[in-house]
Every structure is written in C-alpha cells, then in structure tokens.
Request: fold
Amino acid sequence: MPFVKVVKDRQYFKRFQVKYRRRREGKTDYYARKRLCVQDKNKYNTPKYRLIVRFTNKDITVQIAYARIQGDIVLSSAYAHELPRYGVKVGLTNYAAAYCTGLLMARRVLTKLDLAKHYSGQTEIDGDEYIVDDAPGAPSAFRCFLDTGLARTTTGARIFGVLKGAVDGGLNIPHNCKRFPGYDSESKDFNADVHRQHIFGNHVSQYMRSLQEDDQDAFQRQFSGFVKAGVTADSMEGMYTKAHAAIRADPSPKPKKEQPANKKPKRFGRKKLSREQRVGRVAQKKASWLHKCAQ
Reply:
C-alpha cells in the first residue's frame, strides 16, 4: 500500500477542541484531579480535602485545600523554609525535612480546627506503619487525600516523607507502606528501621562520613552549608529530634509584620493625571509642534 499523507482539512479544524490551559502548559493532570476533587453525592456539600505536596529546588510546599467552582480554597499551608525556626537550618529539601514539613502541616491544621488535643499522632517515631483512627467521644479524625501532582511516585520518594509526617502528626490519610524507604518489592517485606533512618537523616549522615573520608574537597564543596551551620554527621539525628518536639510545641505560623497605617503603597505605573493636567499637556504638545513647524 503506498504511503498516504494525512491532511488535516477544514472539517478536522472545525471540530478541534482545545484542551484546558493548565493541560496545555503541562501543569495539571486532570484525570487524577477529577478523582481527587469529586465528592460523593450522599455527602452533599462536605469538602473533600487534599494534602497537596509540591517540591522545588529549594523549598517544599504543603497545603490542605478543597475544590469549589470559583477555585481551590486553601485551609492551611506549611513550607520547608519555616523549618529554621525549629532548628533545621540546612538540607531543607531532603527526606527528613519533608517529614518535618508534613508534621508541621498536620499539627497546624489540627490546632486550627481544635482537634490537636484529641489526636496527638505518633509521638515515638519508629518508621513503622501508623493509622489514625477516630478517638472515642471526640470529633472524627481529619481525613484528606494525598495529591502528588505530576511527580513520580517511586518507592522512597520524598513526597512520601511528607505523607508519613502528616500521618504521624495526626491526620487520617489512606496509604500503605509499599512506597516508603525500606520496602522490598521482591520479598514484599518492609524494614521500618530503614525508614526511621531516613526520617532522622541518618542516610545523609552516612554519606557525609563516606564523602569526608574519600574526598575532602568534594565534602567541603557539597556540605559547605552544613559545615557553616555547625551540623555534623553525629549531631544530625539530635537536630531532627529537637525539631519534632519544637514543631509539636508551637506549630503556629510566624506572625506577619504589621505595616504602618500611613504608609503609601508602592506605585509601578504613572500617576493618573487630572483633567486640567491632561488639557495642559495637550496644549503644550500643540505649541511645541507649531513652533517646530514655524522653523
């Protein structure tokens, strides 16, 4: 059969339907979003909360939001750049920092909803699977669903560090341990101790020790921020232990600085002219043009 070139004719373009803008930009997976946002009909107008996790090169963003027709409404949020308040000054995007950010998010939203006294979560961190159940004689546990966006959900991914921190903080999130570090897909076994080491940054400590022994220059180049902050391989677990306790003690966001009432807002455009100024400006232009023509 000879090669036939497919020609997109007028009928094709008349019936062409443009995809959503965020799909064209490659930002939103609408197949997944529909299943995360659509609520059961028998639950009426009850919000379906999502634990939204996004990673950047230097930060971790965690939000709890629900969908409405006018757009998503954010109930609460937490960021990795808040961790220096709790003693974690470096390594703000590793697995241990992701756990701290998830823990901060959980304690913050439970405090906001007055549920923190009923659901304390997992206080003794062992890395093992933990499920939040409804406490007797108390309101139901806060339930939400993990929204990973377009990130790869591979075993050991940092996104699941945020999930584990939120669950240990007292949120009811459906999950299992198959994507946590320490799970072996061949033997179907889960090693909770490996997961605990990741939560406390021991995998980073081991790499620091090995790199320091093998290549001192590479160690100084890669861990210069740790050296400057005085964080060593031996002190890392203690740093995260203190951070977990500090987050539980005060998960509230940092208060915003109040702007003075008489402060004028910054303007980026030209100030609007009055009618007299506009008339004078036109008259000046006319006079300038006539003077130029007379020469």
The mean pLDDT is 93. The two ends are 79 Å apart (CA to CA).
